[in-house]
Amino acid sequence: MNPQVMEKLKKQLEQELQEIEQQLEESERPQATELSNYDNHPADNASDLTDQLTEMAIDEHRGDDAEEIKAALQAMEDGTYGKCAVCGEEIPIGRLEAMPKALTCVEHAEHKEDNLRPVEEDVLSSTPKSDDFIELEEFGSSDTPQDKS
């Protein structure tokens, strides 16, 4: 890899890491807006809790980003930056410029989006998996005679 490109990417990663660490440092945990919950409407308490959970999630995401950047900077120090950590092939410069913290090629990149589906979807579906539904219809349903034909 071209040393000038490597230096540019390193500066970009260091700047991004510095910004993230500064944001984490300045981040405050939201406090409850009321001294007592005695006369509060439950929606006020829910709003406070939502704000707190949102801030915690953002901080966790920033922390994960910081760890990925540190791993990329360490790879630069080790001389392994620019090579896929899985297959050892060169990572295209375009990918590194778009995502400097990438340590794998596109083929071996983790697709985290695949795991974001709720686990309930494995159990629930729009179509019944057995004939139990037919047995339940004997007890009545909202279907009209037109629906059954």
| Nearest-integer average pLDDT | 80
Helix content: 40-55%
Report the C-alpha radius of gyration, rounded: 26 Å
Identify low-pLDDT runs.
none
SSE order, as H and E? HHHHHH
The number of distinct β-strands equals 0
What is the straight-line distance between the termini?
68 Å
- Dominant shape: flat
User: Strand-residue fraction?
Assistant: under 5%
> What structural class results from the helix and strand content?
mainly alpha
Major beta sheet summary: none
Helix tally equals: 6
Pfam family, one: zf-dskA_traR
Organism: Lysinibacillus zambalensis
Keywords: Metal-binding, Zinc, Zinc-finger
InterPro entries: DnaK_N, Znf_DskA_TraR
Give an overview in words.
The chain is mostly helical and 149 residues long. The chain has 6 helices and no strands. It has helices at 3-26, 42-78, 93-98, 120-123, 132-137, 145-148. It comes from Lysinibacillus zambalensis. Residues 110-120 have a biased composition (Basic and acidic residues).
